[in-house]
């Protein structure tokens, strides 16, 4: 009858002491502190490997994963932000649609608003309609709730009475699902970049 081989002596990876393990899977000496430290180091190595693995993920993959976690409300905000950015560059250099005063386009997000003729609160279905949104000053848009009377006068001059009346009479119900909001964001992000390049080329040539 063959005798079982005795485990060979090992060197503890923590305290460097030599010991004879009870079995082949024993990694440290018989000290509990060494065992705990070995587990801690293994967990640390595991975490570091996971971090390296995450770092290797492409930006596109990370973005894809994040997008899966976004709600309809998140996409709605991003779509509106893209449309507003487009309005900023489309109307760059033009005065406030309501009061007609010059706008400070050098301060994005502060001095120029994307002002809705029919507000998002009263006409949510027109929130992305570019005929319904124009560059306006903070005072008119926020403090005077759009300053709607002169807004209408100037809007008629800008886009024509027929389009203005069409906006005023449009009370259709529309629901924007996530796929639609994604398309809005994508389309107006591209349009904003296009207009931004055009404006910058014009400024450089001037």
From TrEMBL:
Record InterPro entries: Phage_lambda_NinG
Name of this protein: NinG family protein
Source organism phylogeny: Bacteria, Pseudomonadati, Pseudomonadota, Gammaproteobacteria, Enterobacterales
Sorted UniProt keywords: Coiled coil
Organism from which the protein derives: Obesumbacterium proteus ATCC 12841
Coiled coil spans: 45-72
